[in-house]
Design goal:
Blueprint: H1 8-23, H2 33-40, H3 51-55, H4 68-77, E1 80-83, E2 86-89, E3 91-96, E4 99-104, H5 118-129, E5 140-144, H6 150-158, E6 163-168, H7 171-184, E7 189-193, E8 204-209, H8 232-244, E9 245-260, E10 263-264, H9 265-277, E11 280-287, E12 305-314
Parallel strand pairs: 5-6, 5-8, 6-7, 8-9
Antiparallel strand pairs: 1-2, 3-4, 9-10, 9-12, 11-12
Length: 317
């Protein structure tokens, strides 16, 4: 696919950079923004940083701190910026589930930033541990709000006979998802623009999603869920899945919900929709307390915690 962010030359340079990091056995687990900030507060010498410092922690560095081959790839891809005599990568690279994945630099302040973090890890782990839908062969799979594309990549590897679509409304996410899919070498996955499922046709055997679920004052695409305490987009995905799931198909949805006085409003609304449509469902809290710092903001003045949850819904075959 073509993107407004990378020319063909830049795409090839990014692929070369990703392959070079993979060949050097680069590994990095991306943490929460709060942890990232704490680590970056520790002193580091720009001339003595590692690849993990450059592409993971996103520290500034000198040209002498990186191999000439890697710096040439960064320059050709247009993903290095200079200031005060130092260089800095404008993308980060994380490793997860055996993949090398480009995503946005820290901090993710831009409205179209492509976020990657512990939520991503929990999402992929939940997919890996969830039993398959009861139907036989999965022919069509879609990852709604694909971000970096890791969900689609993981599913494309797991189901090599299926067509896997990675859809998003964020052009920057689609650009990086396309690079990451190509770097992974999964021929059965493709990044496409779609608002929910409005720009793709047909029914799906498996619909997965890890949507934004917070109330963000800046309404950044990767973060703002809208609706009641951030649950708006997750509920829209449930509604879309009810209409577009094939017989025997399943929805796997990872989200976060704000609890007020022990009440889970997302669970109430989502399961009412699923029950009315005749779908079976299971629901569990993966982590009872995430993004606790959000409770200090006015939007969450009445919330007692934010939990990470996993909803699985299926249609009868």
């Amino acid at each position: 696919m073509t993107t407004p962010f990378f020319t063909a030359v830049q795409q090839q340079a990014l692929l070369a950079l990703g392959a070079a990091l993979r060949a050097r056995k680069y590994q990095f687990t991306t943490v929460t923004p709060a942890t990232q900030e704490r680590v970056l507060a520790r002193p580091a010498e720009p001339h003595a940083v590692s690849l993990r410092d450059i592409f993971g922690w996103n520290r500034p560095f000198t040209p002498a701190a990186i191999e000439a081959e890697l710096l040439a790839c960064m320059q050709a891809a247009g993903v290095v910026e200079e200031g005060y005599g130092l260089l800095r990568s404008t993308v980060r690279v994380s490793t997860l589930a055996g993949e090398w994945l480009f995503h946005s630099a820290y901090p993710t302040t831009e409205g179209d930033a492509v976020f990657f973090g512990p939520d991503t890890c929990r999402f992929v782990r939940a997919m890996e541990q969830t039993p398959l839908p009861p139907r036989g062969t999965l022919r069509r799979i879609v990852d709604i709000g694909c971000g970096s594309g890791i969900g689609a990549i993981a599913l494309a590897r797991r189901f090599p006979e299926a067509e896997v679509l990675a859809v998003d409304i964020n052009d920057r996410a689609l650009a990086l998802a396309d690079i990451n899919i190509r770097l992974a070498g999964v021929a059965n996955a493709e990044a496409r623009y779609s608002n929910l499922l409005n720009q793709v046709d047909g029914v799906f055997d498996l619909i997965v999603a890890n949507p934004p679920y917070l109330l963000d004052e800046a309404e950044r695409v990767y973060r703002h869920g809208g609706g009641e305490l951030g649950a708006g987009l997750a509920l829209q995905i449930v509604q879309a899945a009810i209409v577009r799931l094939a017989r025997g198909g399943a929805l796997w949805l990872y989200s976060g919900v704000a609890m007020q006085d022990g009440d889970d409003a997302f669970l109430r609304h989502a399961t009412a929709l699923l029950d009315e449509a005749g779908l079976r469902w299971t629901y569990e809290e993966i982590d009872p307390d995430v993004f606790g710092e959000e409770l200090e903001t006015p939007a969450y003045a009445g919330a007692e915690r934010i939990a990470a949850v996993w909803l699985v819904a299926s249609r009868e075959a």
